Amino acid sequence: MDWLEERVERLRRYIRDLSFRKAMIAYILVLSVVVFGLSYLTIIVCWQWEMEEWVRYERADLADLVYRKGPLWGFHFHFAEGTDYWKILFLDLIRVWCPFFYAFAGMILTVCIFYKKRLARPLSILEDSVGRIWRNDLEFRVCYESRDELGSLCDSVEDMRTELVRGKEEMWRLVERQKELNAAFAHDLRTPLTVLRGYTDFLLRYIPEGKISEEKMQDTLALMSDHIRRLENYSRTMKGIRSIEEVPFLPERTELGSLQKKIGEVVFALDQAGDVRVIYQRRDAAGAVRVEADDNIIIEVLGNVLSNAIRYAKEEIEVVSDYDEAKEEFLLTVRDDGKGFSEEQLQKALQPYHKEYEEKPDEHFGIGLHICREFCRKHGGTLNVANSIRGGAVVTASFICRVYSENISDILSDS
After folding, report:
1. How far is CA 178 from CA 166, 244, 334, 389, in A?
2. Which domain holds residue 343?
3. Where residue 219 sits, what CATH number does that domain have?
4. Does residue 105 sit in the same domain as residue 200?
5. Is the CB of residue 375 less than 8 Å from the CB of residue 389?
6. Domain count of the chain?
7. Is 301 exposed, middle or buried (0-12, 13-18, 19+ CB in 10 A)?
8. How much is the pTM?
9. How far apart are CA 26 and CA 29, in angstroms?
10. According to the model, what pLDDT value does residue 353 have?
11. Each residue of 338-389: pLDDT tens digit?
12. Cα separations (Å) of 375 from 293, 301, 397?
């Protein structure tokens, strides 16, 4: 019987997928057949019953006339008496008017069936869908199996809902990116301002005592001017971008020693600005190595990591720079003597808006390490967090800084 059930199911799907015009024609044809059949049966039954009444009055001439004229014609029934007269009249009326009655009742019934079978469910689905969309509730699906006109309309509403969901998700992504960018901008302004404050404190502390030479003061003012220029450039850059991913990566050829000198200047300024001692160590012995690096990104990462370390260190912070010539990788390691990361924080520290310690909820945005990771990725490197065996947190940032040579013989030998 499986083949029969399959054929019935195929026929049911075919009828369900008919267009409204074809479906209405089919309903009218079925109605016509039903009305014709019921009318014919009713007329025949009434005709035979009426003939029995006439024969009972022994009016063979009339019975013969009725037989020859057929069941659709009426006659005078004055020969009948009492209730028989009304009975014959009633049968004659039914015989004549039953096709009109069946047609009228059939049309009403057909309209009701058509509405229930073809319109009620899709209209209910559409009404519910439009109401939920109006209430900004998009967590649903518009599903109607038929392929008729309302089925196509339901598919269109589902496409519209999908586009609204996609647009809403895109809007939230843009909002989150803008929120992240604003937080990054506010966060990153702290580092150069802290550096400038460190230099200012240094000058205010030692100029009145006469412990700063004119050359040292000029160098310090020049460094402050460089940081102010860097702050201006950073503000101008952040103004024209829409997300952290759009921060430009602009590597330049520079000596490794010059890069490490800039790192030392930032460490010196932050050491002057806070109560925590900051120590800088250089582990490379190749300061004259020329590399391609974006020192703005490297200094930005250093400033963010150091700012976090100063916030949670107790007495001392150690900054170590190293360069692996084999991997062409520049490494920055910042180690503090605070309480370090918990197991949960080690998993979530690099996520945006994660704050290391909840007891200080308003002191920072919880986005610094996330920004550092994105900057390291731009430079081809990574950012890792861990706990030191001596206690405290350790953050290691790596940057791919390829060595270059301006010696033509070296270029030819490399090629």
Report:
1. 18, 9, 29, 38
2. 174-414
3. 3.30.565.10
4. no
5. no
6. 2
7. buried
8. 0.53
9. 5
10. 53
11. 888 888 888 777 776 555 444 444 444 356 787 788 889 989 999 999 998 8
12. 12, 7, 10
